[in-house]
Design goal:
The complex is a heterodimer of chains A (223) and B (136).
Chain A (H helix, E strand, L loop, with lengths): L2 H7 L4 E8 L4 H11 L5 E4 L3 H6 L6 E5 L5 E7 L18 H24 L9 H7 L5 H18 L3 H14 L4 H11 L7 H8 L18
Parallel strand pairs in A: 1-2
Antiparallel strand pairs in A: 3-4
Helix pairs in contact in A: 6-7, 7-8
Chain B lengths: L1 E5 L2 E5 L9 E2 L1 H8 L2 E3 L2 E4 L2 E3 L6 H4 E2 L2 E3 H7 L4 E3 L5 E4 L3 H9 L7 E3 L5 E3 L7 E7 L3
The chains are: A mainly alpha (223), B alpha+beta (136).
Chain lengths: 223, 136
């Protein structure tokens, strides 16, 4: 997903760190990684450590971190939109208006990264500390409890206590139902393919007017 | 044996949970939480959380410390398996918020496909796009 951008910008002191949230482990991520032939680090995160640290709830989400290790854009949707929801379930075709919107959002996001890498702190996409703090997603008590419960469930599954582990993961989903990382990972651990199957689409449809991908707040990268 | 998973460590202790309550020796308690129970309260470094007056018995009894009461007092999620033999102690939401609000990117270490470990902080001096994805 990021290889062309990385090759374009790496000489300017830019790196992508891609983190695969994959509780089934490296083998689940391997086909995609080998297909993309990335030259940047692609890491395997079986316990969703990065999602926990950065309060991520979906993929792809991204954080911009500057040369000093400071967050200049906190966790946000990384150049994708809800256009996929208009996909034809049989042909997988996406209508042109949504397709255009998806391409435009991705283009805007990549351009914003280029602007940041070129202009550094002077880039209009670099948030001041106040704005960055305001946009940082908040942990609540149920969200923290969901992380703990997810960790328990994954540990139990690794220990061979699969059914008990899956029940713990279901509790984590109940605690933080907005975290698609939790539901989809649970579904994937239950049955491979379930995370993108009919139950996924039913859950997406049940969102109604709510977004699947939280739109980036104005002044937005995608605006 | 009881397994307790907490920030970065997994501890095996000999004590058994009674419901959500799990009474640990001070040494086991310190290994799991990093806190020591002193007259001024639960202390880690210079920071102490006082034990509420009149409720000392819920926290300490016969030289054992109840980690569940500690977790409740300090707003740490404390989540157990159905058979009560495996527990996770999580950092409080407020502490996680303060960490992220500092805007210092939390460091982590994860393996790549070959098993080689990478740290975020290995890339200090570069602009980093930290991006999540998944096969599912």
């Amino acid at each position: 997903m990021w290889q062309a951008l990385y090759e374009e910008l790496r000489a300017k002191g830019f790196v992508v760190i891609a983190v695969a949230l994959e509780s089934r482990g490296a083998e689940a991520a391997r086909p995609s990684i080998e297909n993309a032939k990335p030259t940047y680090p692609c890491l395997i995160d079986v316990d969703h450590v990065v999602a926990r640290l950065y309060n991520m709830v979906n993929v792809p989400q991204a954080v911009w971190i500057d040369e000093r290790g400071r967050i200049v854009r906190p966790t946000e949707t990384a150049g994708v939109t809800d256009g996929f929801r208009k996909m034809d379930p049989t042909t997988y075709a996406i209508p042109k208006p949504e397709l255009d919107e998806m391409m435009a959002a991705r283009g805007h996001y990549l351009d914003a990264i280029r602007d940041w890498v070129t202009h550094g702190a002077a880039s209009k996409y670099v948030l001041d500390a106040k704005d960055a703090r305001r946009r940082t997603p908040r942990f609540t008590a149920p969200v923290a409890r969901a992380h703990a419960t997810f960790r328990l469930g994954r540990h139990l599954i690794v220990q061979g206590r699969r059914e008990e582990g899956l029940r713990a993961l279901a509790k984590a989903v109940d605690l933080n139902p907005d975290a698609w990382t939790l539901w989809r990972q649970m579904a994937d651990l239950d049955v491979v393919g379930k995370a993108g199957g009919p139950e996924f689409w039913a859950r997406v449809a049940a969102l109604g007017e709510k977004r699947y991908y939280a739109p980036v707040v104005e002044p937005a990268v995608s605006g | 044996m009881t397994t307790i998973i907490s920030a970065g460590t997994t501890n095996e202790v000999s004590e058994r949970a009674d419901g959500a309550d799990l009474w640990l020796t001070p040494a086991h308690f310190a290994a799991v939480t990093g806190f020591t129970l002193k007259p001024e309260g639960f202390c880690r470094g210079a920071v102490c959380v006082p034990v509420p007056r009149g409720r000392e018995r819920q926290f300490r009894h016969e030289d054992k410390i109840n980690i569940a009461a500690f977790a409740n007092l300090t707003e740490r999620p404390w989540v157990g398996s159905e058979s009560l033999d495996t527990w996770v102690l999580e950092e409080p939401a407020q502490a996680r918020n303060e960490t992220l609000q500092s805007l210092d990117a939390p460091d982590f270490e994860l393996p790549d496909l070959t098993g080689r470990k990478h740290r975020l902080s290995d890339h200090r001096g570069k602009k980093v796009l930290l991006a999540s994805w998944a096969s599912w």
